[in-house]
Design a protein that fits this description.
This protein has 627 residues and is an all-alpha fold. The chain has a domain of 141 residues. The longest helix has 28 residues.
Length: 627
């Protein structure tokens, strides 16, 4: 049926808007702003310390040195806090860093592939898991404030400049990335070496890498470097709070996720047409493998502290970015190649869905086997025709398992989210990327279809979905755990605690730093400093051991947790009152919601946030005086 001209224009507009509406929908599903959680707690505290060093410089996280010495992000963030307030500044900084990273990723994929494949790859980046390293602790795209995303964006811009032969600009951008977060910028310098001169034979790079590892092993084994090694006491602190720094402590699921990502990049380096995308895939693959090799030799074998702090496993992040970006281009190249190529696409999709499951290695191995059959034209024609059918069976198993697993664990992944429960349940089905992948396939099928009415209808549905999710997303991004006026509410508590005096508010260190404006004696976020200082690691373990009776008595820990078992074994004691808690620790001021059967120094002041109204401020000196 022929449509009027104005209807054709609307239909064409709707068709062209489909991918961008889909991208907006996927972002809204993924944009689960965490607020002051994860590493945002530490970076925000460091920014507060920049604004008021006289209050916080004695805190154990800063006293022995921290990552704050290596970044210019914290001073800029501190300035933003001065302008907007702490919580609003955290949300704005997160949004700006994430937008910069996404813009850089879009520029990169648009440089590498055709416009349609770029749109599909960008949607896959938002839809698929982009974690790197152990236990899904770190992600390329993060929903809380850190300088990592900004450093990643600068590395991507540097690679784009290098592709345009603007080498000085690339170096300048990498230096800027290192000033934001040197660990995240480090793989950029490896990529720079790989891409500096495209004509360099790849064998030379691998030979140079092997020679470098041999020199590292030889030099690192010298007795002169024994003072630089991680000793037993430092290792214990690391095993308690950052054991993932040693690759020997990674779990099988960690290696499966890494393997899935690297296999995807390796297949892209093999099957994509010769050009910038293929060369970048090789460089990214080389960088990721080099990072793993450096970590294994220098950290797991030689136990060199400075290499442990360098965390070379983070060189995997460019692969976690590039794999989903180029997945549609890789799928198209394989699908149009032969039957084994189509089987590889289906099995690789199943491997991505199952990447955290115990059977993930089998799916990854099947994808590699099909890829070898595709590239080498193995098997007779009759056998090759059966390969896609077997791959369909594997994909069906993965889809069925994913749906069943998501139903059984509904909303568990987002139980601490600030979003509505219904949105959290929906997000649970998107964690492994299955539902977003189905959406991407459906939308891009309509994008290429010659059915105007279907395109308009899909655009209307996507607009409705975006408008439905938008209020909940805005609610999450506007969530505030602390209000600037609450600082005045706790003035009475601050008046009772001398400045620069440690306070043990274990369950809410951000409240301690922001509301009480006092150093924290011990809290889980502070244990990140075990990486950067042996002295801090030893002191933190001592303080943690002191506070075990208090944490057991107040329910903040249990006797079967790894820390308690490692530090106290079966002899851990519980503090049932303030006297027992104070007898075990040197700290004088404790905050707890549990009644310690002693007169508190102060109760929660009127106007305290709902989560803090049951808190009590205790002073060990009062208990001693009473005795």
């Amino acid at each position: 049926m022929n449509l009027p001209l104005h209807d054709k224009a609307y239909a064409d507009l709707a068709r062209r808007a489909l991918p961008w509406l889909l991208i907006a929908l996927i972002w809204l599903l993924d944009a689960n702003y965490f607020g002051l959680e994860h590493d945002a707690v530490i970076y925000t505290f460091q920014a507060l310390a920049h604004r008021s060093p006289e209050l916080y410089s004695s805190d154990i996280f800063l006293k022995f040195g921290s990552q704050d010495r290596y970044t210019l992000f914290t001073p800029a963030y501190a300035t933003l806090i001065g302008w907007l307030g702490m919580e609003r500044a955290a949300a704005v900084a997160t949004l700006l860093c994430q937008a910069t990273l996404l813009f850089a990723a879009w520029r990169l994929v648009r440089r590498l592939v055709t416009p349609t494949l770029a749109l599909a790859g960008f949607a896959c980046l938002l839809a698929l898991p982009n974690d790197y390293g152990p236990r899904r602790i770190f992600n390329v795209i993060e929903n809380f404030v850190t300088p990592r995303m900004l450093s990643e964006a600068l590395v991507i811009f540097a690679m784009l400049a290098l592709m345009q032969r603007r080498r000085l600009l690339a170096i300048a951008l990498l230096v800027a990335g290192a000033l934001m977060h040197p660990l995240m910028a480090a793989p950029g310098f490896v990529l720079l070496i790989c891409l500096w001169e495209p004509q360099i034979p790849r064998g030379w790079l691998f030979a140079a890498a092997a020679l470098g590892l041999l020199l590292l092993a030889a030099a690192g084994s010298l007795p002169a470097l024994d003072g630089w090694r991680v000793d037993t006491d430092w290792r214990m602190a690391i095993d308690l709070h950052a054991d993932y720094l040693f690759l020997q402590n990674w779990e099988p699921a960690d290696w499966s996720r890494v393997a899935c990502t690297l296999v995807t990049v390796a297949l892209a380096a093999w099957f994509l047409a010769d050009g910038p995308a293929r060369r970048l895939c090789f460089a990214v693959l080389f960088t990721g493998l080099a990072g793993i090799a450096v970590a294994l030799v220098s950290v797991d074998w030689l136990r060199l502290g400075i290499f442990m702090q360098g965390q070379a496993y983070r060189w995997l992040w460019p692969a976690s970015l590039l794999a989903p970006l180029l997945l549609p281009a890789l799928a198209l190249a394989l699908w149009t190649r032969n039957e084994a190529g189509r089987a590889t696409v289906l099995t690789l999709a199943a491997a991505w869905i199952m990447r955290v499951e115990p059977v993930a290695p089998a799916f990854i191995a099947a994808a590699v086997a099909f890829a070898l059959a595709s590239g080498c034209e193995w098997g007779d024609a009759r056998l090759r025709r059966w390969l896609p059918r077997g791959a369909v069976l594997l994909l069906a198993i993965a889809v069925t398992y994913s749906l069943a697993s998501n139903v059984l664990t509904n909303a568990a992944a987002y139980e601490d989210s600030h979003s509505p429960a219904a949105l959290n349940r929906l997000r649970t089905f998107c964690v492994d990327g299955l539902v977003p992948l189905l959406l991407i396939l459906g939308v891009f099928r309509l994008y290429h279809a010659s059915r105007p009415a279907a395109g308009v209808g899909a655009a209307v549905l996507l607009i409705a979905a975006v408008l439905t999710l938008l209020p909940a997303t805005l609610q999450a991004w506007s969530y505030r755990a602390f209000d600037d006026t609450e600082v005045q509410v706790f003035e009475a508590w601050r008046a009772r605690i001398p400045p620069r005096t440690d306070v043990a508010w274990i369950e809410a260190p951000m409240a301690n730093w922001y509301l009480l404006q006092r150093p924290s004696y011990f809290s889980p976020p502070q244990t990140g400093s075990v990486v950067f200082s042996r002295a801090a690691a030893i002191e933190l373990v001592r303080r943690e051991r002191e506070l075990i009776p208090l944490m057991l008595g107040t329910g903040l820990s249990h006797k079967d947790t790894r820390g308690v078992l490692r530090l106290e074994g079966d002899h851990a004691r519980e503090a049932h009152n303030l006297a027992e808690a104070c007898a075990a620790t040197r700290v004088q001021y404790l905050v707890s919601r549990t009644d310690l059967h002693a007169a508190p120094l102060a109760l929660a002041p009127p106007g305290a946030p709902a989560g803090f109204r049951a808190m009590r401020l205790y002073h060990c000196g009062l208990q001693v005086d009473a005795q």
